[in-house]
Amino acid sequence: MIKVGLTGGIGSGKSTVAQVFKTLGIPVFDADIVAKRIMEEDKVLVASIKKAFGEESYIGDKLNRKYIADIVFKDKYQLELLNNLTHPATIKAAEEWMATQTSPYCIKEAALLFEAGTAGNLDIIIGVQAPDALRIKRVMHRDDISRQEVLNRMGKQIEQDIKMRLCDYVIINDEQRLLIPQVLELHNKFTSDTTHNL
User: Fold this and answer.
1) Which residues of 125-154 are buried (b: 16+ CB within 10 A; e: fewer)?
2) pLDDT score, position 196
3) β 62-63/58-59 pair status
């Protein structure tokens, strides 16, 4: 089975692309969703986050996402600290999940594949690319935050052009080119007889 990574900068639309792969019957591990779940269910991690960022990090048993975001997206050190706390558990969960899959290929969707140093554990990396102006508009609408807040978050990730050059394949999600044919082309490539030679 081929282990595929799916990545892209904030607002690139990688979750939309992941949904197309799911529709084709391909299992997808959403690292961001799993990380959020672990941050609420792993008692050792919860204690570590409270110690690092204060009791206000949680409201009851739920992560205070706005409070955490306000801290980490304004301070590179604090973001690195949070990632160092959460990434090991998320990486372990992804590896365990992939070991149980039986499809021709499976996908790990993660914004920080390269930043977290986990791309090397995967066979193929797909990048999702979109114009910066469109990315900013999407995230402002999705998260109900200001343009400056979006720019702060974008600034904490590897520049899109650099990230895309690190990928094996790139899907363009600019609302001009159709997504489904691009995904189908890769799906057919990964499930063909020549897949293992990629």
Assistant:
1) bbbbbbbeebbbebbeeebebeeebbebbb
2) 52
3) antiparallel
